[in-house]
Fold each of these.
Amino acid sequence: MVEKNGTESLDRLKREFTETEKVILSRRSVRLYKKEQVPEFMVKRILEAGRFAPSAGNFQPWKFIVLRDAEVIKGITESVVSSCRILSAMTDYRREGYSWLRPLIKLITRLRYNDLHPMPFTAIPLMGEGRLDLWHGAPTVIVLLKDIRGAGNPDLDCGIAGQNMVLAAHSMGLGTCWVGFAKPTLEYNPIWKKRLGISYPYKFANSLAIGWPRGNPDGMVTRQTHAVDWFENGTVKTIT
Amino acid sequence: MGNFGIFDRFRIPTYNDPEQMQFGIVEFDLEKCTGCAMCVAVCPADALITMDKKPRMRQANECAFCGDCAALCPAGAITMKSPYRFTRFYKTIDQGESSPPRL
């Protein structure tokens, strides 16, 4: 922590990032994992980081499920792959001879604009063809369930808790990746929902792949800047 | 940067039209590249392929500009050239030049 009113420490702050900032800025979504399992105590510590996340009204509208069973992870992956195969057969108008599907899909996109955003739209066929693995071979998966009765916006609270866990894991040298693609199975497939005990008031929010990274994926990369409007002293300026 | 017009709002882009959907572009320094193909393995969009033991971007790809390849490359041979730019309903707005973390 930087001491308040310390000129020397403020000078240092201008020259270099803090340790926490380095963890945040060098975090990449890891998609290559070693087979080696993550020690149990580390997963428990990661869960602790999630437990102490801020939430609306301190309602803590979440439940975490830890999957470390290779059979379960494989089973869910297979279920998601077959769902994606069906979904891509229904939606992918980019295939040859399917351009007639385009107006219909554009109409549905207008209603389900998050689900049919170009990124998931193009990832569904990749998943169905097995060109994209669900949890990228990670040995540990944390599924984040939201309590739908939560105050305000439970999805957001799960996101905050999840990012706490991601940063905690990264600070321990682990790799993580947010995976929302388990949704077809963990939200809609009654067999898997029953098997994992996902029932009212819990609903699938997101999931995290956790494991030891293969290679060194950490590093600061280039990213888009975003316009920020800045109101001060009666004027407004836009910075990027 | 730009603004989001009323016509943008009502037109859904065609995803396989490069005029309407420009995906991310990364560049390879083939002199530095050792041909380990880690970038090809890590790419979540399967946008990279190996040709003559060197990586290359596929003709039609859906690069999300995530930077995993650039961060992972042991030789530092990958530069992230330009991010994805969408038009119409998914128009990229209020974004400026790309940059690494700034102090």
Note: The two ends of chain B are 23 Å apart (CA to CA).
Amino acid sequence: MTDDNLKTETSSSTVIKFENVSKVYKGNFPALENINLEINDGEFVSIVGKSGAGKSTLLKMIYAEEAPTDGTVLFGGEPINVSKKGELFLHRRKIGTVFQDFKLLPSKTAFENVAYALEAAGTSEEEILENVPQVLDVVGLGSKMEKFPYQLSAGEQQRVAFARALIQKPMVIVADEPTGNLDPVSSWGIIKLMLKINEMGTTIILSSHDKYVVDKINKRVVILEDGKIIGDCPVGKYKLV
Amino acid sequence: MSTIIVRTIKEATKNFFRNGWLSIATSMILMLSLYTLSILFLILMTSNIAIKIIQEKSNISIYFNQDVNDETISNIKSEIEKNSLVSSVVYVNKEEALDIFKRNNANEEAILKSLEEIGSNPLLASLVVKAVSPTQYQAIYEFVNNAEFVSEVSRINYIKNKEAIDRLNFFVEKARQVGLIASSILAISSILITFNSIRITIYSRRKEMQIMRLVGASNLFIRLPYVFEGILYGLAASIISTILLLITVGFISPYISESILSKSFMSFFWSKFWLLLGFQIITGCTLGVASSMIAIRRYLKI
């Protein structure tokens, strides 16, 4: 096999690629500096670092909430074009997002929160009625479909968020500090859920500053500090230099 | 597209009822706007009709002395008709006057009896003069008073009505001026308040819009339910306002003399019911939708 062949093979399995990406926020505040990062299909990548290291900014570029000041972010080989605002929703449908504060719609039940993503994508009513309960079963909330977020525990709310991220069968799930608001027991539940989702073939990109979580996962770890990648271990433990 | 519309209506209706208090508060403020505008609308309509009716009813009656014959009167009639301020002159002779009097007093036996006792016809022949415009009665009155035939005239009954007509003219004129200013101010301020409260309602839910964006909803899909909610506010507000109007009119109606509108205020209201309801629904929905759209534009940054 020639070098060229090898190259095409790697790039076809690359889901996300950061090419010399920098981000400077207003007021000359640099958040990311010259980031080069490749994430392959089916990987589980934990991005670790202190608060303010640039973890969230990195993730926001993947779901097109922020645009790089310099460089390009490629998704499935295509650059993400944040300037096409009217079409960003099509890009976002390929990515599931989970946040520290769950971001559930407060006036919707668990079922409706998950169904909303499908409704927005124009999925038929029959498919929604079939798929949503299935996904809620996967995250272990099959019996609490009709509960509103305020009737659910923090861990359960986060499971709803994962169900919502999963429902569109995304290529990638981006989880920004998903255990940040959870107690250790709930966190452990979410870790197991993420590993399960990853085993089913979905790429997961997790940001965390929780040593316990990252060590439990025991997969690839990318370490960020002051906006730079200072470490990238294929199977790693949480460590800060 | 039809899926979007069905989901929009479903979503908006659900939101409207789930956000119970917020929806009620917003609709109530919109309702106040509509109620105020409707009342102004009613007052303007009523006064316009009242003016027309009173203009039709008002006239100058010139009564002639007992000894004046038909020929003299018809000469005087054609003389008055030549005046450009006059729109019509009707001759009522003694017999007709008696008939009218008897008809008007058909239930008053005492009066009819006393009329019989007199034996002869005590009523006078008269000319009923109508002016082109109600403001010209004074001029016509003066014209008659200064005419040569004034010696044949027993009395002119304009003086009796004069005050009422003057007062009405004054009132109508003032009501138009004040009404126009007051209704503009009220309309503008109520529109601003409504706009603001719908904006606040949407502002309080801006986080929802952000979440919707993140899960891949298109702008149209996010916006439409809020716009449709604006329509629901408008509908709810029109219904409540109409009920309130009905109560108000029912309360006021007995105090408004039927002679003003030639029917009761209540039946006048019912005759304008659909017009008023339509006016409120259109105004309410327009206000609701416009406020929603402007507010969303501000809070739905992509």
Note: The radius of gyration of chain A is 18 Å.
